[in-house]
Design goal:
The complex is a heterodimer of chains A (307) and B (279).
Chain A lengths: L5 E10 L8 E11 L4 E5 L6 H9 L6 E6 L2 E2 L7 E4 L11 H12 L5 H14 L15 H14 L4 E5 L7 H18 L2 E6 L2 H7 L2 E5 L7 E6 L17 H23 L11 E2 L18 H8 L1
Parallel strand pairs in A: 3-8, 3-9, 6-7, 7-8, 10-11
Antiparallel strand pairs in A: 1-2, 1-4, 4-5, 9-10
Helix pairs in contact in A: 2-3, 2-4, 3-4
Chain B lengths: L4 H24 L10 H7 L1 H4 L8 H13 L12 H32 L1 H14 L8 H8 L2 H26 L3 H9 L4 H39 L4 H10 L3 H29 L4
Helix pairs in contact in B: 4-12, 5-6, 5-8, 5-10, 5-11, 7-8, 8-10, 10-11, 10-12, 11-12
The chains are: A alpha/beta (307), B mainly alpha (279).
GO cellular component, one term (chain A): plasma membrane
InterPro entries (chain A): AAA+_ATPase, ABC_transporter-like_ATP-bd, ABC_transporter-like_CS, ABC_transporter_ATP-bind, P-loop_NTPase
Membrane topology (chain A): Peripheral membrane protein
C-alpha cells in the first residue's frame, strides 16, 4: 500500500458545528491506495462523504485530517494532473463543444497555437464519438452527449488520474450503458488511472479493478476492499455469464443492503485495522454457484436488482 | 382570417392608430361654445374664443410642423431657436457621456463587490441608502461643486445609471455557478483568466439587464435634468416651447423622446441577445 501511485492516508472530514449543534465527522481514518493504470470504484450510501472525498482528492475541498499523496507528494490543491468529470457535466454553456474542450487544452498547453489546440481537441471529440457536433452549444446536446463532452474535456488534458463523481447517474439506462462501454474501451486503450464514485453495483463490476466499500456516515470508514475477480475484457453483454459475477454482485449488494449500516459492530472487531481494510475476492475459492434461487434466465433478476 | 399573427397584429396597430387620429381630430375641431364677448377682445383671445376651436393642435398641425422639423432638424438660430435634431443630439451626448462613465465605474466595481463577500457586506448599507435617492436631488450639490450646468447634468445621469449596473453586476458575479468555477479551479486557470473567461461570460446576461435598465432611467432623467439646467437639449426644448405656448412643438418633442428611448433600448436589447446563453 505504501508504494501505491495515489495514497489516501487517514483522511478525515469534519464539518463545523452549526450554531448550537455538534460538529459532524463525515468520515474518518480512510486509508486506501490506487495503483497506476488501475480503475477504482468507491461504493457507499448517500451521506457517507463520497463526494466530499472526491472533492478533496480533486483539491476542491480541504480535509480535516490525514492527507492524500500522489507520486510521493502530498496534494495541496487542484491540479491539471487530476481531471474531474462532474456529475452534472459542468460545461460552460456559452462555449461550443470545441470551445469547452479547448478551454481545458489551453489551460494545459498555454503556448500552443490555435491550429494545434484544435487538432488536439478534435482527437478527443472524435474519441467520444461527437464528430460533427464540434460547433454545437451544450443546450443543443442531449444529456449523454453533454457528458461525452465532459469526458473529452477531462481526457484532453491527459491527466495522471481521472476523477468521476457518479458521472452517469443523471442519464437514462440506455445512454448510461453505451457510455460505460465507451469508458471501458477508452480506459483499456489508454491505461488511464481512474477513480469513480458510484452506487450502481453493475457499473462498478463492469468498470472497476478494485471496489472500495464505505460504511454509512457519520464517521464512515472503508469497510473492505473488494478485488474484481471477473477477468479484464468483460462487457455488459456477457459479464453476467461469468461464474464469479453472482458472488461479486451478491457480496456488494449484501454490503449495501445490510453491512454498510451494521458495520459499526464489525469495527469493534480487534481484527479490523483501518489502515489495512480487509481485502476480499468474491467467487474465488467458492463453488461457481448462483446463490439467487431464480429459476431459468438470471438476466431479468440482474436488471431489476441493479438499479 | 388565417393571416399570420404578425400581420394581424400589424393591421390592428394601424386600425388603432387611425382611430386615435380620428378621435383626436374630432376632439379639437371647432364645435365648442363661442364666447359671447366683445369681438375686438375675442380677436385678442385667439381662435378658441372666435370659432370654438380648441387651442390644442390637431393631428394635421402636428404633421405639418413635424415635416418642417424633419426637413431641417439641425438649424441653429441662436440660443432660443435650434432644430429639434440638434437638441436631441445634445441630450443623447449627455446621456452617453454620463452613462459611459457609469459603465466604466459600475461594472469593474460591481465585479469587485461580487467577487468579495467582505466588500459586498461592507458597501451594502451605502448602496442601499444611495440607490433610492432621486437623481435630481443631487442637482444643487452638483451645481455647487462642479459649477458647470452641462457637467452637472452629466453627473446626474451618471449617478442615476450607476446603481442598476452596480447591483446587477455584483449579483451576477456573486451567483456564478460554483460548478463552473470548480471547472476553472481543477484546470488550474489563473484568477484573471477565470474572471475574463468564466465569470464575465457567465454574468454577462445579468450585467446586460442592469445596463439596459440604466439607459432607460438615464433617458428618463435627462429630460427633467435639462429642464432644470436649461440652455440646450430636448428637455430644455420642451420647457422652452411650453413658455412659447407652442403645444405643437411640445407634442413633437414628446414623440421624439419616445422614439429615441425606444432606439436606445432596442440597441442594448440587441447587445444583450449577443451575450445571452441557454443552459
Amino acid at each position: 500500500m505504501s508504494t501505491s501511485h495515489i495514497r489516501i492516508e487517514g483522511l478525515r472530514k469534519t464539518f463545523p458545528a452549526p450554531r448550537g449543534g455538534v460538529a459532524v465527522t463525515v468520515f474518518d481514518q480512510v486509508w486506501f491506495g490506487i495503483e497506476k493504470g488501475e480503475f477504482v470504484c468507491l461504493i457507499g450510501h448517500s451521506g457517507c462523504g463520497k463526494t466530499t472525498l472526491l472533492n478533496i482528492l480533486a483539491g476542491l475541498d480541504e480535509s480535516s485530517g490525514g492527507g492524500i499523496v500522489v507520486n510521493g507528494k502530498e496534494i495541496t490543491g487542484p491540479s491539471l494532473d487530476r481531471a474531474v468529470i462532474f456529475q452534472h457535466h459542468a460545461l460552460l454553456p456559452w462555449l461550443t463543444v470545441m470551445g469547452n474542450v479547448a478551454f481545458a487544452v489551453r489551460s494545459r498547453h498555454s503556448g500552443w497555437d490555435n491550429a494545434k489546440v484544435r487538432a488536439h481537441c478534435q482527437k478527443y471529440i472524435d474519441l467520444v464519438h461527437l464528430t460533427g457536433s464540434e460547433m454545437k452549444k451544450p443546450s443543443q446536446l442531449s444529456g449523454g452527449m453533454k457528458q461525452r463532452v465532459g469526458i473529452a474535456r477531462a481526457l484532453a488534458i491527459e491527466p495522471d488520474i481521472l476523477l468521476m463523481d457518479e458521472p452517469f447517474s443523471a442519464l437514462d439506462a440506455l445512454t448510461r450503458g453505451s457510455l460505460q462501454d465507451e469508458l471501458v474501451s477508452i480506459c483499456a486503450a489508454t491505461q488511464q488511472t481512474s477513480f469513480m464514485i458510484t452506487h450502481d453495483i453493475d457499473e462498478a463490476i463492469l468498470l472497476a479493478d478494485k471496489i472500495v466499500l464505505m460504511s454509512n456516515g457519520p464517521e464512515a470508514r472503508v469497510c473492505e476492499i473488494v478485488e474484481n475477480t471477473l477477468p479484464k475484457g468483460r462487457t455488459r453483454k456477457d459479464m453476467h455469464r461469468h461464474p464469479h459475477y453472482y458472488p461479486m454482485r451478491n457480496h456488494l449488494l449484501e454490503f449495501l443492503v445490510n453491512r454498510a449500516n451494521s458495520f459499526k459492530t464489525e469495527l469493534s472487531d480487534p481484527g479490523y485495522d483501518p489502515m489495512h481494510p480487509p481485502v476480499t475476492r468474491p467467487g474465488v475459492g467458492q463453488p461457481a454457484a448462483r446463490p439467487i434461487d431464480a429459476p431459468g434466465d438470471p438476466l431479468p433478476e440482474a436488471k431489476t436488482a441493479g438499479r | 382570417m388565417q393571416l399570420p399573427l404578425g400581420l394581424r397584429a400589424g393591421l390592428l396597430s394601424v386600425v388603432l392608430f387611425i382611430a386615435f387620429i380620428a378621435i383626436w381630430q374630432a376632439a379639437v375641431s371647432g364645435t365648442g361654445k363661442v364666447a359671447d364677448i366683445d369681438p375686438e377682445y375675442a380677436k385678442l383671445m385667439g381662435a378658441s374664443a372666435v370659432t370654438g376651436a380648441s387651442a390644442m393642435p390637431g393631428p394635421g398641425d402636428i404633421g405639418v410642423t413635424l415635416w418642417q422639423h424633419l426637413s431641417d432638424p439641425f438649424y441653429d438660430n441662436g440660443p432660443n431657436d435650434k432644430g429639434i435634431g440638434l437638441q436631441l443630439g445634445y441630450s443623447i451626448l449627455r446621456v452617453l457621456a454620463g452613462f459611459g462613465l457609469a459603465v466604466v465605474t459600475a461594472i469593474p466595481l460591481g465585479f469587485l463587490i461580487g467577487m468579495s463577500p467582505l466588500v459586498y457586506k461592507a458597501l451594502d448599507p451605502y448602496i442601499q441608502i444611495l440607490k433610492p435617492i432621486s437623481p435630481l436631488a443631487w442637482m444643487p450639490l452638483a451645481l455647487y461643486t462642479i459649477k458647470d450646468s452641462g457637467l452637472s447634468a452629466i453627473f446626474v445621469i451618471f449617478i442615476c445609471s450607476v446603481w442598476p449596473m452596480l447591483l446587477n453586476t455584483a449579483f451576477g458575479v456573486a451567483s456564478v455557478r460554483k460548478e463552473w468555477l470548480n471547472v476553472a479551479r481543477t484546470l488550474e486557470v489563473g484568477q484573471l483568466r477565470t474572471a475574463i473567461a468564466v465569470i464575465l461570460p457567465a454574468a454577462a446576461p445579468t450585467i446586460m439587464t442592469g445596463v439596459r435598465i440604466s439607459i432607460g432611467i438615464a433617458w428618463l432623467v435627462i429630460v427633467a435634468a435639462e429642464m432644470l439646467v436649461g440652455g440646450t437639449g430636448i428637455g430644455y426644448f420642451v420647457w422652452n416651447e411650453w413658455n412659447n405656448l407652442s403645444i405643437t412643438n411640445v407634442i413633437i418633442a414628446i414623440l421624439a423622446i419616445g422614439v429615441i428611448g425606444m432606439v436606445l433600448d432596442q440597441a442594448l436589447g440587441w447587445l444583450a441577445r449577443l451575450v445571452a446563453y441557454q443552459e
